[in-house]
Amino acid sequence: MKKIIFKFTHIAIISLAVISCWYFFINRCSLQKTSTLNRIDQIKSIKTISNLEKTIDNDRIKSCLNNVSSVNKIALTSLIVADNPNYVISAAKSIKTIIQNTKGLNFDKIVIEIENKRLKEESKQLLLKAGWDFICTVRHIYSADDSKLYKHHKETYTKLITINMTEYEGIVYMDTDILVIGDIKELFTFYKKIDFINYFIAVAQDTEADGKPRDRFNSGVFSVRPNSTEFSRLMRLRDTNITDLSFAHGEQNFLNHCYKDKWYKFDFKFNGIVWILQNYEWNLKKMTIDVRIFHFTSIKPWDCMSKAADVCKLWNDIPI
User: Fold this and answer.
1) Of 30, 59, 88, which residue is a domain's last?
2) Could you tell me the maximum CA-CA distance found in the chain, to the nearest angstrom?
3) Beta 170-174 vs 74-79: how paired, if at all?
């Protein structure tokens, strides 16, 4: 009997030892598996963060001195110089009309400021509140001889920076003294016409003060396909002695010289110089049938002439 009890006890002890070893082995394997999975998750997390940082870095707009990134494939840009607060107010008004007439279209809305003529903080807040997405600070692009430029054209060569914003497939540039009164989504497709063989820029024909069309284009509204090689070419041309170039009207004369027979002409309805009102007997209702963007090139809405009072009133009635 004692032998049986001894054997039973011996077997029980051995079984308990085996179970304990098995439990220890299983638990250790489980811990190792959990630890391995945790390490894998950590590696995945590190890779995800690394890829995210890489994506953010790739989207960063390199032409901007400040840290801003592209979100969409196309963009709207507008240059604002801090010297004249009227243009800040106009930019706040214009973006509201642009947003209202581009519903369903996704694009970045960028204010360009010049490094040595930065906007005041309250101006930036006004612009962002109005609908601009961010401010891009860039270096001043000078002409070959700024002494020959009209005072209000000394900064306009800086518009050319848009051609170097290669983070975007296409960019529409608009001066701040514009007013949009109709659908302009088509304007954001014209960059596709640019092939750097037949066309280098998409623009509308300019208008004389008497309302007649000119044999050149107006660069207050244009569309480009950003290309760093083309931007470098323009910078080299800028630095050369172009004897037949009139500097008076800034980058507009320069671009007309460089692209004199290489511009895609879009309809004047996307850049309706206010002077054209003469052709409509200064009747705003007649002109709005044909025009979607009013451009106050010489007649400014904050310093309007009586004949253009109706179109200036449209601008003045926009709240900010």
Assistant:
1) 59
2) 129
3) parallel
Query: Total structural domains in the chain?
Result: 2
- Which residues lie below 8 Å from residue 234, measured CB to CB, with a gap of 6+? 160, 163, 258
In tens, the pLDDT along 63-121 reads 999 999 999 999 999 999 877 899 999 999 999 999 999 999 999 999 999 999 999 99
Q: How confident is the model at residue 238 (pLDDT cuts 50, 70, 90)?
A: confident
Residues 165 and 36 in one domain: no
Q: Shortest CA distance to 167 belongs to which of 78, 80, 67, 71?
A: 71
Whether residue 64 is contained in a domain is answered as: no
Residue range(s) defining the domain that contains residue 52: 1-59
- Report yes or no on 65 lying in a domain: no
Looking at the fold, whether 96 and 42 belong to one and the same domain comes out as no
- Output the domain CATH number for residue 299: 3.90.550.10
Question: Rounded distance, CA 142 to CA 116, Å?
Answer: 12
Phi then psi for residue 115, to 5 deg, are -50, -45
131 backbone dihedrals φ, ψ, rounded to 5°? 140, -10
Q: Where are the beta strands (DSSP E) in 247-306?
A: 263-265, 272-273, 293-295
Model pLDDT for residues 14-56, shown as the tens digit of each residue: 554 445 544 444 455 444 544 444 444 444 443 343 343 333 4
- How are beta strands 213-224 and 178-180 bridged, if at all? unpaired
